[in-house]
Amino acid sequence: MSVFLWLALFCHVLFVFSPQVVAEDIPSGDESVEYDDLPPDLDEFDIDDMEDSPSGWVDPLEPVNRVFFYINDTLYSWVLEPVAEGYGAVLPKEIRIGIRNLFSHILTPVRVVGSLLQGKVTDSGVEVTRFVVNTFFGFGGFFDVAEDAFDLRIRDEDLGQALGYYGVSDSIYIFWPILGPSNLRDTVGLGGEFFLNPIYYIGNDDLLFGLGLKSEEIVNETSLMLGEYDQIKDSSLDPYVSIRDFYLQYRRGKVKE
Amino acid sequence: MGDSAAGRKKTVFIVILFLGLVIYWNEVAASASPLDQMKSTVDEILQIVRDENLKVPELRDKRREMIMKVVGQRFNFQVMSQLALARNWKARTDSEKKQFVDMFRKILENTYIARVENYSNEEIIYKKEVLKGKGKAVVYTETIINDTEIPIVYRLKNYNDQWLVYDVIIEKVSLIGNYRSQFNQIMSKEDFPGLVKRLEEKIQKMEESGETDDVP
Fold first, then answer.
1. DSSP assignment, residue B213?
2. What percentage of chain A reaches a pLDDT higher than 70?
């Protein structure tokens, strides 16, 4: 009897005085782990061989990229921002969010194919379900009923991510005029997505229609994130490098997901 | 006699068990979880930001000071600076290190204040915390802006029961990692004096623009 007593006591004392029991990898709360795609922990690197920039990252086009960056930056503050501000002042936010939902709704094929190519069958199923639900109950995609009522969040997959999944490297950063930051891989992906975009099949004989729609999409989106770009720019010492790193980290996170 | 000896042992056992529990619970209470500590800091900051009485131009500096004080208790600017400067940190003299920490701190504080001002009406959801071992933890939060969920993740390290932030990850992008790539590029072309000059210019610009549009 006393053997058990002392054993119990011993275990108990051990438990009480071992805080490291708590400090293990115990996730608490929501365990759906949809966000476990963090960039590397900077503190995990040995300070001597700390990578300066993420590995394999090259920017051979930097001089050209910087020129386009400058042009886009100017276009943004002189044209896009004021237009989006006026647009936002006229249209209520709820409508602009609805328009954004519509544009995103149309691009469902990109996400379905993007998910399927990465073997994410469930995600592509979610996208198909979202499409059906939002088409019939969300006024053709204006409202995101699927997320609001059924918690079916958008699965943000595309062809660039699918290529990344197959190991295509994200090296060679390209800053496109108008389109902004990209890389060789994502540009190829974007080219493919062109053919997955229903608008291409509806309006392929009318260039003006397509351009008009694209402009509306850009202006609408910008009106919903006014100030974001300025904030990144204001807080950085070299906005070109900051945006480049931002894009790189963001896309790497997306591929890891 | 045998009975009472066992009884005494039992009593001793219960007393020790009880004492142990008391000690254990005190321990738990003293070292609040990283999520709780993070939440209390953010709540405190939001309380200051949302205080209408402080939103007058005359109290601008006081308000900033109050925010900075709370921020300073939760963010480890020393480690952040070290991680941002990476391999260039070691080559610095002690006074250079101090100078750099002070300047980077100002940059981060101004950036943080600008962000917080924007988020002042948004709800913050605390999703979960993950203890990583080696005294580290990750706290997952989310704010919703214009119907879009923005994940904001804090990396923290434990120092004497205080969890201090050493990196912030917004939309999968590490803030300190982003500064690291900028600092590295500037260092490789302009060296440390060039970096200091740029930091000085940036801080000046930030503080000037803060004076005009900090108070809504």
1. H
2. 79
Nearest CA in chain B to A94: B146
CB of B110 closer than 8 Å to CB of B213: no
Dist CA A135 CA B68 (whole Å):
48
d(CA B49, CA B110): 14
Of A21-30, B4-13, B126-135, B138-147, where does mean pLDDT reach its minimum?
A21-30
Rounded to a whole number of angstroms, the distance from the CA of A214 to the nearest CA of chain B is 21
Collapsed DSSP state (helix, strand, coil) of residue B171: coil
Quote the ipTM score: 0.80
Confidence class of residue B214 from pLDDT cuts 50, 70 and 90?
A: very low
CA angle A110, A115, A118 (to 5 degrees): 130
Residues of A in contact with B205 (CB under 8 A): 234
| Residue linked to tokens 């600008």 | B114
Element (H, E) at B174: strand B173-174
Sign of CA dihedral A7, A9, A15, A17: negative
Please determine, for residue B69, whether its predicted confidence score (pLDDT) is greater than 80.
yes
Buried b (16+ CB within 10 A) or exposed e, A131-160: bebbeeebeebbbbbbbeeeebebbebbbb
Element (H, E) at B121: none
A210 confidence band (pLDDT: 50, 70, 90): confident
How far are the Cα atoms of A123, A191, A251, B119 from residue A109, in angstroms, in the given order? 12, 14, 20, 34
User: Which residues of chain B lie closer than 8 angstroms to A146, CB-CB?
Assistant: none
Taking the C-alpha atoms of residue B43 and residue B74, their distance in angstroms, rounded to an integer, is 12
Per DSSP bridges, beta strands A180-183 and B124-133 are unpaired
Q: Is A47 in contact with B138 (Cβ distance < 8 A)?
A: no
Helix (H, G, I), strand (E, B) or coil at B215: coil
Distance CA B105, CA B116 (A): 16
Identity at A91, one-letter amino acid code: L
pLDDT per residue over A123-158, tens digit each? 999 999 999 999 999 999 999 999 989 889 999 999
- Do B177 and A50 count as a contact with CB atoms less than 8 A apart? no
